[in-house]
Amino acid sequence: MSAARQDILSDLRERISSLEGGASRRAGSLSFGVPEIDRILPGGGLAYGALHEFAGGGCGTVDGAAAALFAAGIAARTRGKIVWCLTRPDLFFPALAQAGLHPDRVIFVEGDREEDVLSSMEEALGYGGLGAVIGELVRLPMVASRRLQLAAERTGTMGIVVRRWRRQTEANDFGQPTASVTRWRVSVLPSAELPVPGVGRPRWLLELMRSRAGECAEFEIGACDDKGRINISSLSGNRSDSSRRFRHSG
């Protein structure tokens, strides 16, 4: 192949990549840095260019806040700005920073309706060049989730949906099928004990409810630190093997 033809093909590839958002595409996954979790996820972590769901283990605000902080910790370990779409501006900035996500990195997009959140998420995912796009939703219809998944695939940006409910009946929607690659549930556990009086590191029960082409499992973990990192709780070993049970997921 002549040098001139190589230059032409190289130029065409760059133009196509630019049109597709390829300049911001990422290959692979974001590792948790926890072997027990990473090894059950295809690719060894949370896939870029994919949609992931997070919800609290119950319908209360405490578990819901834990799910949001888990999502914040994941976003904190990505590169670039974070777009956070929501209808209720009730996030506590110091808590986000404590989970490793400094508010200066976050662009908050507020909408009146959940349809606005979905639209903002799709547009941000399609833009590319972002660390992650997070949206707070009660319901995630299959068609809407598929649009978000396709937008994430085009640019390689990670999409995160935090499911938040105001009423118990709304939590039932979490069992409906979506196009998300993984689905997680986070519940608050008693904090780790300290050898002196005080409050230890928060602990969560982390459940991987669905993993496309992978397994499901649950773990007791230490909550996100100021770098967005989690760890397997030292108290996990005190539980029976059911604390880390695996099951096949279609």
Structure summarized in a few sentences:
This protein is α/β, with parallel strands linked by helices and 250 residues long. It contains six helices and twelve strands.
CATH topology term of the domain at 24-182: Rossmann fold
What sort of overall outline do the alpha carbons produce when their principal axes are compared?
globular
User: Mind summarizing the main beta sheet?
Assistant: 10 strands, mixed
Estimate percent helicity: 25-40%
Q: Structural class of the secondary elements? A: alpha/beta
Oligomeric grouping of the chains? single chain
Number of helices: 6
Mean pLDDT: 84
* CATH class value of the domain at 24-182: Alpha Beta
Distance between the terminal alpha carbons, to the nearest Å? 46 Å
Explain what this protein looks like in three dimensions.
With 250 residues, the chain is α/β, with parallel strands linked by helices. The protein has a domain at 24-182: P-loop containing nucleotide triphosphate hydrolases (Rossmann fold, 3-Layer(aba) Sandwich), CATH 3.40.50.300. 28% of the residues lie in helices and 24% in strands. It has six helices and twelve strands. It has helices spanning 3-19, 35-38, 61-76, 93-98, 114-127, 142-155; strands spanning 29-30, 46-47, 51-56, 82-86, 106-110, 132-137, 158-163, 182-189, 203-211, 215-222, 231-232, 247-248. The strands form two sheets. Strands 3, 4, 5, 6, 7, 8, 9, 10, 11 and 12 form a ten-stranded mixed β-sheet that branches. A two-stranded antiparallel sheet has the order 1-2. α5 packs parallel to α6. The radius of gyration is 19 Å and the shape is globular.
